[in-house]
Amino acid sequence: MRIDVVSIFPEYLAALDLSLIGKARQDGLLDLNVHDLRDFTTDRHRTVDDTPYGGGAGMVMKAEPWAQALASVAEAGNSGGDGGTRPVLIVPSPAGAVFTQTMAYELAEEKHLVFACGRYEGIDERVLEWSGERFDVRPVSLGDYVLNGGEVAVLAMVEAIGRLVPGVVGNPESLVEESHSDGLLEYPVYTKPSSWRDRNVPDILLSGNHGKIAQWRREQQLQRTAVRRPDLLEKFDVSQLTKADKAALAAMGYDVMKDRIQLRG
Ligand code: ADE
Known about the structure:
The protein is α/β, with parallel strands linked by helices. The chain has helices spanning 19-26, 63-77, 101-107, 125-131, 151-162, 173-176, 210-228, 230-234, 243-251, and strands at residues 2-7, 31-36, 49-50, 60-61, 88-98, 112-116, 136-141, 195-196, 199-200, 254-256, 261-263. A hairpin with a 4-residue loop joins strand 10 and strand 11 (261-263). The termini are far apart.
């Protein structure tokens, strides 16, 4: 997969040299390129922002440096010349659709992702319209809060997407049993020693009974999701529930209806 990130703070993205993503870059699984937006300016001061039309606080990122930068990365990504699918342009913004694990899975299938890190009050809206000619443009938010710019959001998204690219995570099994992979939160985990500061690992995990352990873990997932993220449980696909799941939910005070799970009122 090719990934291009355009930012006025390319140093911010240095963390993508580390850990699993850094190794995936070294191994050639991720072709990740970071670009300085100011390299696409033409004036002496390398200006990237200006005052907003209509007034108001803050500055807006100018259209032309973005157009130059995005045209350049679109061109670079198409060097194979296969003229295939359009690259996806992800524009991190608190005004975007909220990033989810489902979105991460979808984006992990793409050949070329481009991230445009806005700063200040955002990028001139015409850039997004213009980009639609060569990119599949997607404004994406990390969550309902405001960051100072898109860089931190890109670090999170590249990590979430990159780890789903085949080969990046050594043991793909670990991607199956993790939070959000099946719409539930992950079960609690423990390691040695089995007794630590008077706290013991649940006996079932020491029993060697794999069927019972799997059932316990599933119950823990349901219980944790019910307590921490009832919103996830209420939109969980009921057809995925086993008889044992339904019994566990009933014991937690939930009614399993035909099409949804609902807290008993
Ligand atoms: N830029 C500023 N706030 C953001 C957010 N919540 N998500 C993505 N990009 C952002």
